[in-house]
Amino acid sequence: MAIRDRLSGNEATAVAMKQINPDVVAAFPITPSTEIPQYFSTFVADGAVDTEFVAVESEHSAMSACVGAQAAGGRAMTATSANGLALMWEVLYIAASLRLPIVMACVNRTLSGPLNIHNDHSDSMGARDSGWIQLYSENNQEAYDNMLMAHRIAEHPDVMLPIMVCQDGFITSHAVENIELMEDEKVKAFVGEYKPDLHLLRKEAPISVGPLDLPAFCFEHKRQQAEAMRKAKSVILEVAREFARISGRHYGFFEEYRTDDAEVAAVLLNSTAGTAKFAVDRLREQGKKVGLVKLRVFRPFPADEIAAALWKFKAVAVMDKADSFNAAGGPLFTEVASALFVKGAPGPKIVNFIYGIGQRDVKAEDMEFVYNELLNIANTGRVGSVYNYLGVKEEEAVLNGLQS
Amino acid sequence: MSHVVEIRWHGRGGQGAKTASLLLADAAFNTGKYIQGFPEYGPERMGAPITAYNRISDERITIHSNIYKPDYVAVVDDTLLTSVDVTAGLKEEGAIIVNTTMSPEEVKPLLKGYRGKVFTIDARKISMETLGKYFPNTPMLGAVVKVSGVMDEKEFLNDMVESFKHKFSKKPEVIEGNVKALERAMQEVKGA
Fold first, then answer.
1. SS3 assignment, position A401
2. Does domain B4-191 have CATH number 3.40.50.720?
3. Were both Cys, which of A168, B8, B140, B152 would link to B70 (CB 3.0–4.6 Å)?
């Protein structure tokens, strides 16, 4: 029987970590992820876990400690946000290329500057090419469930890559909502033991970790790393199927909400999906055929699957809570557009909305504006402006594109 | 679409408006509801105006925006009445509940023409007399439950006794005072 509870997204993540009981947690506090190591350190103090908690002096050290612990054959976890993730940068790439399945909670926060403690996706989007698997979570339940599935994905012999589970800072990390927890024993059985074939402390088969990799083999190692990311796709689905059997909750690369007969759809990540569902329900009452595709897995990017899912729509809005500053659309937009282009013409009309930067609040009315613009595009077949801002207050932005 | 009761809290950093919203979420959760309780942080400092929110429903809640058209507004500090637009978007068929020594009639002129119901509660007095310290949360929680009717009062009180027993297991001497503060707030909140 599931345990009915109410927790914030940060509490839910900390509870998942307690149930996982990793060997090492190394973390440095940064808003809004601070509560995760804070709660976890109380579990350590209370003896609820037998984890070695390392209170490091920076996030660079946090990720370095995780690399050391994981290379020694242990399970290492951490949590961070924004500039904490940025300070880990160098080591993120090292963790991925060393094929160390470290698990991290990334509580999405605007990367400085300007200094802003609130939510957008500029932190994890910047890390999208670091070689980490990225899962995104709409609410506390998904943050919890994704965390429970993380080790099974990362540690799979075909994968062996680090993974970050993202959720929206404050919006879900600090919001208390209903949640269904699983029993400790069930989680323990599902997550299982970590027994890597090779690690630093296995003296009968000594290895070096992180030696110089010159032109003779570096290319092959990077290709193998990319191959692991491709293989992660089937592993993610396999783990989700097994998780559904014990939890009753189903996960894929993305969730399609009321898309069966939809003419238009929005594509987005994390908590705004909930607000979009609310808007979809309201517009459906008016007979408007609108739907939502909520992406859960951004790395590996499910290009073929997302292109196939979006193919049937007349118009699609890809929504980015981070800008690329490439003057050509946000990161999610460019990847979705690329996936659609590779599939070939004709496909849906596609537009980009940059939204919610620095946690500009996204109201149901904002999502209704997006859907009405999409319906307009679907009816006329004409796209006025491809790159748009949602909810920004400047006139210049209105002149350069749509705006609610 | 399901009916969702939306409540907005106004307080000052350190006064516990966020805690009050979490207490209300807890109480509603314990009576079987779907709930949300979340703060809106501004500058992180004591005394700065802060806002917190609740959604309470019989069905799952998916929306993750702030609340712009609340059914109820709770003001934990009456000095905010003149500096924050506390009735912004507040439904006329809803109500505002203010922690103050003023009467509802005295508060009304400060509310920028709000035509809905106005309730007041002297949470300081109740808190000092029942707890010996100024914790406006508990009386405000009682007043909000009473005025909003979001849950059965008896069920709420019984449940709060259990939750205080759990929360204050290491200092049981404060349980009775907290229960008393809730009961008195529910009796003493006044207005229309």
1. coil
2. no
3. B8
